[in-house]
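Q: Fold this one first, please.
A: Sequence and structure below.
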Amino acid sequence: MTATAGSVTNAGPARTVQAKQSLGARITEKLSGGLVRVFLVLVGLFWLVPTIGLLLASLRSPQDMSASGWWTVFTKPSQLTFDSYQKLLENSDITTSLWNTVLITVPATVLVVVVGSLAGYAFAWMEFPGRDWWFLGVVSLLVVPVQVALIPIAELFGKIGLFGTIFGVILFHTGFGLPFAVFLLRNFFAEIPRELLEAARLDGAGELRLFARVVMPLGGPAIASLGIFQFLWVWNDMLVALVFTKSGTQPITVALQTQVRQFGNNVDVLAPGAFISMVIPLAVFFAFQRQFVSGVMAGAVK
């Protein structure tokens, strides 16, 4: 009887715990179902509202934009026109600045990815004197703010004839992008199994061949993430370009800023120019989003 009573007594809390777990499991199952998906879709659409609004505004005439908001397009689709983009293509300042942005962003991204990959591999797998101290020195550069270096580097570029040139802006972005690149890729490359590298060396692979054939394919996600970060940072930069460029070498961010004379003026050029300036980084991000997610999640799951 005592054992039976004890069993009955212990059965109550067990049922309570089981009921609580079942309730939590049911709540989790409901939250992970269609309701959360609908919520995430709504959040994504809300995030895209400024982009959609800018696109529709760029397809309206200045008169329509001054008279009503962009959302009136849904009731009056006849407002849509490509005249603003035609004027944009006829504006030599905007087209030249857009090309300057490409000339600055692409080399600055490629240089950071290539040099950062080589340096990251060297710090991860090559033995040389003072390797750890050199790596600590590179990591310490991450805390140096860009604003501190603007005036000294501007004076240096002025003395050597690089101030106001596209090459000078590329060098500045490359220099400030390399510490993060080396830090990121060194930590990623260090997770590659040593046995894999030793097997490649036994097959006769040198350091460059080992880097190109083994390390680079395995480091693809991290390299893609670095490339996206660097591309977005350089493309959207305005501070460095405002300091180091002049008329003829200005990127799109500075050119659009110079088009703002007073409220509502030049809106037929600003709206399409701003949309093109924004949609290109978005296209790059969505094109490499899988590699970006893989790079961010690298090392989280073994």
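Q: Good. Now the second chain.
A: Here it is, same layout.
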Amino acid sequence: MRSDPGPAGGSDPDPGLYGPASVTWHCHGDPMMWLAGVRALYLQALHPRAVRGVMENSAAFRDQGDGQDTWGRLLRTADFVGTLTYGTTEAAERAGARVRAIHRTLTATDPATGERFRVDDPELLLWVHCAQIDSFLHVLRRSGVPLTAAQADRYVAENVANARLVGLDPDRVPADTAALAAYFERTRPGLAAGPDAHVVDAFLRRPPVHPLLRPARALLWRPLAALAYGSLPGWAHRLYGRPAPAPRAVTRRLRLTGRLLRTIPAGLRWQMPPGHILRAMRRMGSSTRPSAYTLRRAAAILEVPPPTAGGGPGRA
């Protein structure tokens, strides 16, 4: 999946759904997004139907071989987020249409009732979206990305565009941090760590890799996965039935990990496939480089109205 180049000729380049004036543009270039994605998987697995839909329709978490399908799934998810954030409007719409078309064909069986249900059930799509946005925002802020409360609200509002592309009605999607927190309060009574969630937990702790990579998994992956688990809310730890370090210790580790990962030159990090950010900068200009420093100039960002779910100018 690749972002299309900007329009030819002398016309202005297409900023895509978000653009360099958005909070999302600058947040999604941060290396802690990978750890935030792991936290999102932990959180998403606590919805029995959502995780059952994954289990029945993907070999990712069942794979006991070299993990190629597993890592392929994770990389495809990262590619999708990158396309929506940094690709052209056309590329983002095309990616969303592809995901909706796939989801329309998939069903799964409710683990409690035996009822067949559609994977594109709006309630399931909303859970996956909210767990993802909550995880991205939580990890970025807790690891040191300098978001103000207003910018955090703006981030949630901007990503209603993401929800629309996977098939949700934008009017039903939380558009600020208070609405997001209220959604979790309403949803929590129906969450549980059933057998499927524990399969996800076991996979994330020891994902299948080629035998030669097992030392690297123990050295690099397991501490990061443990940190992602530790960053979950206390109620999620209680559902999983597995303890986590004290919140203050987790915050220290998140900030340290963030500082370490951010010492890796961004240009080097962004060379890794699929290269969405570098293509976006070539399209939009080097001054559009994603940076937490830009986020500190809150007025410069907040003076621009956030995009609507369709990507155009929206309400402030």
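Q: Anything worth noting on the second one?
A: Residues 1-9, 64-68, 299-304, 309-316 have pLDDT under 50 and may be disordered.
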